[in-house]
Fold this protein.
Amino acid sequence: MGERATSDMLIHLGELRDLKPRVNYAERSSKTIGHVWGPRTIPDCQLLYVVSGAIEISLGPDQFVLESGNCAYYGSNSPHMLTISKETTYCSIHFDWNTEDTMPRHPVPGIENCYPRDMSRHPVSYDIGLDNGRTVRLPHRFKAPSLEPIFGSIVVEYREQDSGYEFVLRSQMMALIASIVRLRIQEVPFDSERRKIAPALEAIRLNPGIHWSIPQLAKMCGYHPTYFADLFGRLIGQPPKAFLMNERAKQAKRMLLTGEKLVNIAETLGYGSVHYFSHNFKKMTGLSPSQYRMHSEES
């Protein structure tokens, strides 16, 4: 299904842009105190969002409480048990990460009870690759009050099952995953390694029109240019010049969509002429600036 195990405890899901998630089941429900699920395993993955109340969760040997605005995530190889500790309203989504098939497959036939001794097994972790070479580790528990509307939309679409609903569910699920990734990035903006080049990354993102040299960027971070270039390539997955060009392309797309004149875009992004900007933009995107703007307006 596109998942690649990197160890017994970690699965790399591939690049965010390449994922094709499938919603298998979605519900919004309320339960009274004492309702229990498990210990069990599920055949797919699950996101559990608490609207109100509280759910006690045992995820392998880890235990925690989900309260209003909290979300839990776990996969098929993670024994777990859920206990309602207050009258609770929640949203639950079962899904597969990456499959061409869009039709939901109800998880119930694949849910299995497990022995209490199985709860000593730690839950599997998952990470997702981003365009800049970075990976984001999905937390098993996180705060996400802003995501309640997306959960609600997925539940409604699954219940109604109008024509083409499975494709709508895929797009909504992709939006939910992207939102979770963004929240994670905001919580952990840089790991300890990436902090070493944070000044250079910030300079490029804030001022992509400057023709930054490797010695300039290296000096910001306090490193020799050769060491800096090697470190940057290892952490980002591309050399500084390629990262700068990608940032320029992103900024150009934003400016094109807001109707900015080509001459202003070229000047802002450090290109000597509109012709030079247009040539580089087409090389990066496969479209001329005019074609990109026209395509976006038609879409």
